Amino acid sequence: MTAPRYSMNSSPKETAAHDACQLPDTWHARVAVGIATYRRPDGLEWLLSALASQISANPFEVVVADNDPLESARATIDRLSSLLRIRYLQVSTPGIAAARNAIIQSAIDVDYIVFIDDDEIPSPGWLSNMVEAQARSGQAGVAGPVRYVYEYPPPRWVHSGGFFISPDFSEGFSMPHAATNNLLLNLRLLRAKGGIPRFDEALGITGGSDTDFTRRLIRSGETIVWTKTAEVIEIVPAARCTARWAIRRAVRTGNNAAQIVLRADTWSLRGRTRVFVGGILRLLGGSAELAVSWLPLAQFRAGRSIRRACRGWGMLRELAAVRVTEYKR
Prior knowledge:
Blueprint: H1 12-21, E1 31-37, H2 41-52, E2 60-66, H3 74-80, E3 86-90, H4 96-106, E4 112-116, E5 120-122, H5 126-137, E6 141-143, E7 146-150, H6 156-160, E8 182-186, H7 187-192, H8 209-219, E9 224-226, E10 232-236, H9 243-264, H10 269-291, H11 302-319
Parallel strand pairs: 1-2, 1-4, 2-3, 6-9, 7-10
Antiparallel strand pairs: 4-8, 5-10, 6-8
Helix pairs in contact: 9-10, 9-11, 10-11
């Protein structure tokens, strides 16, 4: 079987938005799991197999956006389409932002879209817990934790430095921003309030489009809450369990943070000054901390100092448009 392909007085809008928050029966909400993928057939197969074993009161479909022009994900989907209802999208525009936009655009009949990455595995009950958390909050989004599992142990300073540590917050905490590696969006609510934002495709190759998206969503007045109850596991391949990759990752996050600030301020002098000062403080502060890391009480901070300095260097590089391209084709 081949998977289908799909290349007071309230205003009416306020009333519709209120109704969208009040689903008569949350367990009848229409749910889709969104996966952007690029040449990871093994990871995609593990993920789809795990999704097939999810027990959820909500019938759900899976939307896979294949960003490979050669359609490398199609064979995996064809093999597993008897286990899941899968909607296959071939997205020719390079970059993960375009794939995420295609997923949202295709979800015209969906109330909630739940994003998960193609190198992750959901924990048992993950999907139900995400939907339950959304039902409790009634907000525009819900984010959950990611636990990293290494194929090969990384250097100790990489682990202690927080290069692969997922943030953790109290249940229901309002997030300043979120990643799409474990994120539910209430599409029904967003449609009722005027429309669903798009991921910025200018950030599709460098990364950071999810941070930019969720920050814009929150600035518009929406809320994304945290739940501890819906964990996913990310398998970190051996190629990423190295000092070189960890440093590159830290530089890229500095790149992304600066790029988002500069784009929001349209490259104004204020924005450039903010990035320059922030980059210098991180670079010099991290370097100074690293210089004394040989002291017994400071050794455990060496990894954090390296990460801080690399993030600062990445911010300064962005001022010269020198970027790490995470999703380079």
